[in-house]
Amino acid sequence: MELMSTPLLPEGFKVPASRNEPPSKRLRRLLAAKPYVFAPGVYDPMGAQLLMYHGFDAVYFSGYSFAIGHLGTTDMDLYSSVEIADGARRTVSGLRKFQLTMATGDPEKKVAPIHLEIPPVVVDMDAGYGNMFNVQRTTELYVNAGIAAAHLEDQVTPKRCGHIAGKALISADEFIGKLRMMRATADDLGHEDFVIIARTDGVSATEAPESKRGLGLAIDRGLRYLDSGVPDLLWCEFPTAEREPTETFCSEIRKRFPKARFAFNYSSSFKWFNEKDPITWDELGLLGVGFIFITLAMQHAAGFGMSTLLNDLKVNKEEGYMELQRREWAAGADVPTRSHHLYTGVPYHHQVGSQYGAQRLSMDHDERLEVSKVV
């Protein structure tokens, strides 16, 4: 890993040189080099930082997860383009800051620096939050936020989660116009590498201009979208976890486009553990799937973890919280959030505060408490 200096770190500390690599270029490099790129779904900067800490290729900023985490509601376009763009912007900013704080470590407590690559962020754009000019505005917001890629779907506005009944599609021509607008906007901003993912909900849509329905409609639409020359990846949303529709869709598309690459939602809506023969990520890679993601991965993990703690607190009172701490601080546990001061960069702020002459932010104000007593 090549390291470099930055004026945002004290002298002697370094970050990976890839910090200066445009996120879309990094994502394209990963897509070209790996059988597939995997990204768990997040909804906030903290979740994205945890993905970064644990070395995942990319971050998927999920619309459904954002609806839950931002508004406490469901995935039916109940938030605006500006809201999700700002959430994604804060996430990209949080990743860049986290790289700095981890590269500092904590010299006072002899915690060594950790050099982390910044994963590219892929963001849900739903149906574009309106017409093609809403798509133009949203794409501009995303590109300027430092997003590497976005996916757009062919539903009417307001859209519905791909696993909620009652989906309706706009015409294929209108959708292709939206895709072309995404490409034109990114190119106009000088980001020709911005990755565009076209999604079709044709398999389970109940309303569409075409007479054809089901997998046949999804294949026809997928071919038309690729004919436009715009999408870098094609995503078909499936209503079940069955492997056969996925295999059929990919093989039929590749008859005309042998080098087509796909995105695949290893959806949190399915009970994969109940599948007799669940399709594997390696098998998806062989089908041409370049990007795999789990939409609500971190939301389900957070819900499970928080519910576990809350039940323990309710039953065991203070012992419930101490049990959480025992697990956080157990020998061999790799839980970066167990010290919230280190995770959020208190040592970094002290060091940089000293460097820039802000005495009230410097190490002079460290309480120097006994390590065994505090986090």
Task: Offer a quick outline of the entry.
The protein is an alpha/beta fold. 43% of the residues lie in helices and 11% in strands.
Description:
The chain is 43% helix and 11% strand. With 375 residues, the chain is an alpha/beta fold. It has 2 domains: 293 residues, TIM Barrel, CATH 3.20.20; 31 residues, no CATH class. Helix 2 links the parallel strand 3 and strand 4. The longest helix is centred in the first third of the chain and has 24 residues. The mean pLDDT is 92.
Topology:
Blueprint: E1 3-4, E2 15-16, H1 23-33, E3 37-42, H2 45-53, E4 59-61, H3 63-71, H4 81-104, E5 121-124, H5 132-144, E6 149-153, H6 172-188, E7 195-200, H7 215-227, E8 233-236, H8 243-256, E9 262-265, H9 281-287, E10 289-294, H10 297-316, H11 318-328, H12 340-344, H13 346-355
Parallel strand pairs: 3-4, 3-10, 4-5, 5-6, 6-7, 7-8, 8-9, 9-10
Antiparallel strand pairs: 1-2
Helix pairs in contact: 2-4, 4-5, 4-13, 5-6, 7-8, 10-11
Spatial strand sequence of the major β-sheet: 3-4-5-6-7-8-9-10
State the low-pLDDT regions, or none.
none
- Give the full name of the CATH homologous superfamily of the largest domain: Phosphoenolpyruvate-binding domains
The class by helix and strand makeup works out as: alpha/beta
Number of domains: 2
- Coarse morphology: globular
CATH architecture of the largest domain: Alpha-Beta Barrel
Task: Please give the alpha-carbon distance between the first and last residues.
Answer: 30 Å
For the secondary structure, the number of strands is 10
**Radius of gyration using CA atoms only:** 22 Å
